[in-house]
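Whether sequence alone determines local backbone shape is best considered at the level of individual chains. When preparing material for the folding task, we compiled for one chain both its residues and its backbone structure tokens. The sequence in question and its structure tokens are set out directly beneath this paragraph.
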Amino acid sequence: MKSSNNYLKVMTDMFFIQLFWAFGVMGVMLIIGIVRLVLQFQANGQDNFYNSFFVVATFFFFVIGIMATSFLPHYVGHGVTRKDYFKGASLALIGMAITLPFVAWGISVLTEFVVENVTSFSFREPNMEVSIDDSNFIGNIVEFLIVTPFVEPESNWVLAIGIFSLKILVYYLAGWLISAALAFYRFSIVIGIGFIAISIVLLTVENVLLRSVLSLPIPNRYAFLAMPEGIAIAALFIIPLGMFYLIRVLTKRVSIRV
């Protein structure tokens, strides 16, 4: 392969490898959903597949984002430049962020159609509200990072898919940023903790801005981060672009043992 096309090879490899991981998680979720349905663990219904995967995506894409830097030594060892690695990995991420929300929605529509026409089981309405009580500091921070702004595809599919895609993008980037920083600073614990804190701040700001744009309740401790709608929309895209930039700077200079 020509060196000018190396980034396309990286993009293809990482896209399909990580897509395979995502399909594995989806498969496990489907099995768990079927078991719950058969054994009727939740008499009041359960979330549909789209809503469930939306929550799971918080953890999944953060974790595989952390794993993204582990691909770098492999590609550098095969003559791929850091620039091509970054371009390919970034395009693979964008591809996943666009593709997987549609896949999850398609599976959700199909499973709901089959279940509701074969059984008397019904799916419950999603509960994606966060507590506005500030009494539990750590618990509220964790909840706020997990329960991100949500829109049902049935109400506005363009907005719903866009929000899901943005969530995949920023949570993956947060994990990637942490692992890139650890690799650059040779796994310094202090630096690692520092970049974890930076990622938490960026994810928190992103969630507050999105809640502001969607006119959703914002916990009191984050109210000072709210911005006018026009500025908030611009910031929603500036934050992931800034994360891309930091990752590029770190991966460009990290030392690799081939």
User: Anything to note?
Assistant: The CA atoms of residues 64 and 172 lie 7 Å apart. The radius of gyration is 20 Å.
